[in-house]
Amino acid sequence: MTTPTKGLEGVVAAESSISSIIDDQLTYVGIPIDDLAENASFEEVVYLLWNLKLPNETELEEIRKALVENMKVPEGLIAHLKSYDLKSVHPMAALRTAVSYMSLYDENPEKLDRESNLKRAIRIQGNLGAIVTAFARLRNGEEPVQPKPEYTFAENFIYMLNGRAPKDIEVEAIDKALVLHADHELNASTFTARVCVATLSDMYSGITAAIGALKGPLHGGANEAVMKMLTEIGEVDNAIPYVKDKLANKEKIMGMGHRVYRNGDPRAKHLKEMSRQLTELVGEEKWFEMSIKIEDYIKEEKGLPANVDFYSASVYHSLGIDHDLFTPIFAVSRTSGWLAHILEQYENNRLIRPRADYVGPEHAKFIPLENRE
Ligand SMILES: CC(=O)SCCNC(=O)CCNC(=O)[C@H](O)C(C)(C)COP(=O)(O)OP(=O)(O)OC[C@H]1O[C@@H](n2cnc3c(N)ncnc32)[C@H](O)[C@@H]1OP(=O)(O)O
Ligand SMILES: O=C([O-])CC(=O)C(=O)O
């Protein structure tokens, strides 16, 4: 048996037409992420990822309407969310459970043809937005807000979170963040989703598994951890002593480093600029200034770049979003990518089952219970 590659680093485990990272450049279906971040709405990206082409005007309007329709919060789901211990449960745990619960209301989740799966994908994508916003409101003692038919996905997300009309700058920031987080080749949560559905399990199982993988602080959970770190640092002058201390204790600096990018995550600069603008707008420039100091120091000392999670933290914080909702927002966006990969996996499926290099004891004897220490 060959020696395993720790963490599967550099291992090519699938063919995919959805997104690529080549020479530190990210594309969705061949389109550079910078072009999408500057010009595309989240709905356009969702359509692109699922159909491998940009939508025309009619197709775009159709998918926008279908997503909004599915952002309506089903009564049963609200009742289910209300049954959680809302004050103590983490929203990622709530989301993971709620998506699994959704499958109970699908007439036949095992019907896996593309048409059924595309309908299901719309339902899952829309409902994700509804679950996160409804959960956020319910735990504050507020009733969930239903989506407005004329709004985009990003507009509705903000509206359903805050219960008031979204501001232009909020829509710009959330739409951009949703576009930037939508897909990322074979990251840990997407791989998880593909492994899960490659057993021919259903889409809800794939998304539930993926949410579980995204939740961890080495992956999507890092954005919440970045804000925890910035809050602990408190003031700009404390930033360098804080990270020096962490590095001296062999602790990781959240939002820094990446398995694939060596010279920088191309998504980070868009969020960095958004963070600059938003922190200035709310008069809390310190979060941006602290972030720059940390980014420069870690680049200099460790040669590590800031990843997508780093500046998204100060962006969401400036929008007044609760810190534990940062990763759920990532999940709402990445669901579009997970669904695209699930569709792709079903279309050319083979069970994913690697081998392990056994390093445990050999020729061990069975000891009867009464003789064990
Ligand atoms: C959307 C996303 O998922 S983006 C990633 C989000 N995660 C984070 O921001 C968490 C912080 N970053 C990390 O933990 C890592 O950089 C990862 C998980 C993203 C990538 O990890 P890997 O490719 O496995 O690198 P690994 O953890 O093996 O680190 C390699 C070396 O760089 C160091 N290193 C990597 N990231 C960091 C960091 N953030 N802070 C300090 N040191 C780091 C490691 O300590 C290790 O050093 P060593 O060789 O002296 O032991
Ligand atoms: O690709 C990765 O390993 C992590 C990442 O940046 C993402 O999922 O967006």
UniProtKB/TrEMBL annotation:
Entry's Pfam families?
Citrate_synt
**Pathway in which this enzyme or protein is active:** Carbohydrate metabolism; tricarboxylic acid cycle
Please give the Gene Ontology molecular function terms for this protein.
citrate synthase activity
Q: What keywords were assigned to this record?
A: Acyltransferase, Transferase, Tricarboxylic acid cycle
Gene3D superfamilies for this protein = Citrate Synthase, domain 1, Cytochrome P450-Terp, domain 2
Q: Which InterPro entries match?
A: 2-MeCitrate/Citrate_synth_II (IPR011278), Citrate_synth-like_lrg_a-sub (IPR016142), Citrate_synth-like_sm_a-sub (IPR016143), Citrate_synthase (IPR002020), Citrate_synthase_bac-typ (IPR024176), Citrate_synthase_sf (IPR036969)
- Which catalysed reactions does the entry list for this protein? oxaloacetate + acetyl-CoA + H2O = citrate + CoA + H(+)
NCBIfam families reported for this sequence: cit_synth_II, PRK14034.1, PRK14035.1
Q: Which family does it belong to?
A: Belongs to the citrate synthase family.
Q: Which PANTHER family match?
A: CITRATE SYNTHASE, CITRATE SYNTHASE, PEROXISOMAL
Name used for this protein in its record? Citrate synthase
Provenance organism: Oceanobacillus luteolus
What gene name is listed for this protein? citZ
